[in-house]
């Protein structure tokens, strides 16, 4: 199976490659529009700061490409946030795939939220064989608000979207590649959607 | 609910674990990769690898190790020990480390924290602070606690937060190795002083010490080495005990 990982200098890609390898799939890091378009599935990673990430996406035209993709697309962490309408981080306009606003956690909380938290109200094929209230690993300072696209939610001072889905676009705030067996199950579910 | 994290720490020298390790079912207890895999299976929430080698080969050996650990385990891990530049960090993150921990280099060139946070985001920058009390004041120490500085622990913690650290790993040199419990009063003060997560380190001896680090010390995570390596405290047993004390843990 051909899985493209969008290459825009977005940090910890190696862990995603290793996680796919554990599932018997060789991920291909790519910034090439043709290669991305023809992959069976696309992973949109992201670690770091939103506005500089969007600047990089715009510089290569990837911001135009991603919303037009037809195959299953999985945004992870900042990748998911950039798929939203806008983010308060650097007052950045996102790709607008999900009509959701990304906001900063309250200053009354420790920020970033760092560690394992539960995902609740799970919906859709991404969560097959994943029980309610499973623990996933999260590291983030901004969160996607609850919306009609919410397919999993988590509580950290506020209930927010820990996963979003619209048609072939999926986004998870947590890091499945770092969330032990259940994270691996989620990646496996995504790969199944790509078959 | 966000859980309290339990973090085994592995001291590494020339690519091998240093402190004695007592795991009957490990083929090679000196192999950090095998030990990491074991801890991940036992529900460790994260791992920390602290490199203490001083050879010229150090950087390459550590980078290779990070790559092999990332290949083998599916939980987050932090790498620290002698990191002093953006280039050092780039290699470790590209090889699969989730976070890096900087200590002496942050004190000697505090702007490194800003540079790293800007380049890679606060979420992967841990500032490790070793401190001990001198005449009733908590003073930051360098070189594994050997070299005192004039820096006040709490002032320094506030500064590293402002400069973009995403987390603080606080080791009390007064408690490290004693097995008498963590520095709970200082931990609680630290937790009130800054708004980023605090990892408690130094002093773990019993399961109750971990409970106290979370309840009295308000820590977000607790790190220990020998109690885990020698099998004195099992990770699952510890987490069951914390759960019984009404603390949120991942089991």
Outline the structure in words.
The complex is a heterodimer of chains A (195) and B (251). Chain A is of the alpha/beta class. Chain A has six helices and 13 strands. In chain A, α1 links the parallel β1 and β2. The model of chain A has no long low-confidence stretch (mean pLDDT 96). In chain B, α1 packs parallel to α2. Chain B has an eight-stranded parallel β-barrel with strand order 1-3-4-5-6-9-10-11, surrounded by seven helices. With 251 residues, chain B is an alpha/beta fold. Chain B has ten helices and eleven strands. Chain B is globular and about 45 Å long. The chains are: A alpha/beta (195), B alpha/beta (251). Chains A and B meet through α1, β8, β9 and α6 of A and α2 of B.
Q: From the structure provided, what is the oligomeric state, counting identical versus distinct chains?
A: heterodimer
Helix content of chain A: 25-40%
Tally the beta strands of chain B. 11
How are the strands of the largest sheet of chain A arranged? 2-1-3-4-13-12-11
CATH homolog superfamily of chain A:
Class I glutamine amidotransferase (GATase) domain
**Largest interface pair:** A-B, 37 and 32 residues
The general outline of chain B is globular
Distance between the termini of chain B: 13 Å
Termini separation of chain A (Å)?
8 Å
Order of helices and strands of chain B: EEHEHEHEHHEEEHEHEHEHH
CATH topological fold name of chain A: Rossmann fold
Secondary-structure-based class of chain A equals alpha/beta
The arrangement of helices and strands of chain A along the chain is: EHEHEHHEHEEEEEEEEEH
Overall body shape of chain A: globular
């Amino acid at each position: 199976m051909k899985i493209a990982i969008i290459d825009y200098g977005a940090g910890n890609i190696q862990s995603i490659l290793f996680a796919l390898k554990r599932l018997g799939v060789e991920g291909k890091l790519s910034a090439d529009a043709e290669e991305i378009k023809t992959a069976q599935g696309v992973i949109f990673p992201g670690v770091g700061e939103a506005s500089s990430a969007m600047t990089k996406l715009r510089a290569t035209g990837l911001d135009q490409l991603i919303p037009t993709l037809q195959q299953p697309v999985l945004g992870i962490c900042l990748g998911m946030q950039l798929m939203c309408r806008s983010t308060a981080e650097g007052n950045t306009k996102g790709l607008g795939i999900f009509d959701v606003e990304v906001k900063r956690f309250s200053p009354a909380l420790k920020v970033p939220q760092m560690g394992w938290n539960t995902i609740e109200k799970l919906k859709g094929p991404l969560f097959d064989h994943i029980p309610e209230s499973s623990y996933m690993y999260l590291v983030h300072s901004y969160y996607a608000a609850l919306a009609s696209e919410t397919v999993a939610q988590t509580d950290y001072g506020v209930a927010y979207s820990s996963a979003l889905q619209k048609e072939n676009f999926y986004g998870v705030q947590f890091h499945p590649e770092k969330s032990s067996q259940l994270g691996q199950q989620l990646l496996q579910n995504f790969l199944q959607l790509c078959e | 609910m966000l859980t309290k994290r339990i973090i085994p720490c592995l001291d590494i020298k020339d690519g091998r674990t240093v402190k004695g390790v007592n795991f009957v079912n490990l083929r090679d207890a000196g192999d950090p990769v095998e030990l990491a895999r074991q801890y991940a299976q036992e529900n460790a929430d994260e791992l920390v690898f602290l490199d203490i080698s001083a050879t010229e080969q150090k950087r390459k050996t550590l980078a290779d190790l990070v790559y092999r650990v990332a290949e083998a385990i599916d939980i987050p891990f932090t790498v620290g020990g002698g990191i002093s530049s953006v280039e050092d960090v780039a290699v470790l993150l590209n090889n699969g480390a989730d976070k890096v921990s900087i200590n002496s280099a942050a004190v000697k060139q505090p702007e490194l924290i800003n540079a790293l946070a800007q380049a890679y985001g606060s979420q992967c920058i841990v500032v490790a602070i070793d401190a001990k009390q001198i005449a009733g004041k908590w003073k930051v120490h360098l070189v594994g606690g050997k070299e005192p500085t004039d820096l006040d622990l709490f002032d320094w913690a506030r500064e590293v937060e402002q400069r973009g650290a995403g987390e603080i790993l606080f080791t009390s040199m007064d408690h490290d190795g004693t097995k008498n419990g963590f520095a709970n009063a200082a931990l609680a003060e630290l937790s009130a002083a800054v708004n980023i997560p605090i990892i408690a380190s130094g002093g773990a001896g019993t399961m109750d010490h971990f409970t106290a680090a979370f309840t009295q010390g308000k820590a977000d995570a607790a790190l220990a080495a020998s109690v885990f390596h020698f099998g004195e405290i099992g990770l699952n047993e510890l987490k069951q005990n914390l759960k019984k004390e009404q603390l949120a843990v991942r089991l």
